[in-house]
Amino acid sequence: MNIIGEILEVNGIKKRVAGILWDEAEIRLRVKELAKEIAGDYRPILKQYPDKNLVLVGILNGVVPFLADLLRELSKYLPVDRLRYDTLAISSYGQGTNPGELKIEKDLKNPISGDIVLIVEDIIDTGYTAVYFKQLLIHKGAFDVRICTLLIKVARKEHEIEPDYIGFELRENLFVVGYGLDWADLCRFLTSIAYLEDL
Ligand code: IMP
Ligand code: MG
Q1: What is the CATH topology of the domain spanning 7-198?
Q2: Pocket of ligand 1 (CB under 6 A)
Q3: What does the alpha-carbon distance between residue 57 and residue 112 come to, in Å, rounded to a whole number?
Q4: Rounded CA gap, 121 and 146, in Å?
Q5: 174-191 pLDDT, tens digit each
Q6: 12, 90, 123, 174: which one has the fewest Cβ atoms less than 10 Å from its Cβ?
Q7: pTM, full prediction
Q8: Rounded distance between C-alpha atoms, residue 196 and residue 190, angstroms
Q9: Domain layout of the chain by residue ranges
């Protein structure tokens, strides 16, 4: 599937898929490496706390492909009876408001109290979303909360939070789509991570 050069148009705004940053094979390899790193860190913790489970909390919708791939890789290295996942969805209040003002669109299915939680995000830009979720899950009584993000925009230095696990660093301030990430809900299905240019 060659998506490069495709023009996207939403509400009169046009963008072009300008190039691929990471292809399917590179993403697969990085997810495998991340899973090994994460499993290595959590194996002793799960051993130390035999009554606690590791719950991956994915932030919808962008995280779906990454969450699915990461979970299946993790299940190769961690005890299968100790691994769970749940999802949360949020949205910003209105348009052009303070990016810190978020509301929950879909809450967790199960109580998280006492669990070892790994928040799984698609991308961290300012970090507001990640900070909000970390506080929310601590408030809900999670025993331990860490953050894993597929991508982080390092060009933006506003980050209030350093994620514990990072898939890829985006050094330039590009807008990216694919592997779950979207522009106006487009391009989530791409197997690679591409960047857009304004037209
Ligand atoms: P933050 O709260 O500023 O860290 O924003 C994170 C959220 O903004 C992500 O969960 C995405 O939904 C969205 N976002 C930020 N940058 C991009 C991008 O380049 N492509 C797609 N979505 C993005
Ligand atoms: Mg998102």
Answers
A1: Rossmann fold (3.40.50)
A2: 62, 99, 121-129, 175-176, 181-182
A3: 10
A4: 11
A5: 999 999 999 999 999 999
A6: 12
A7: 0.94
A8: 13
A9: 7-198
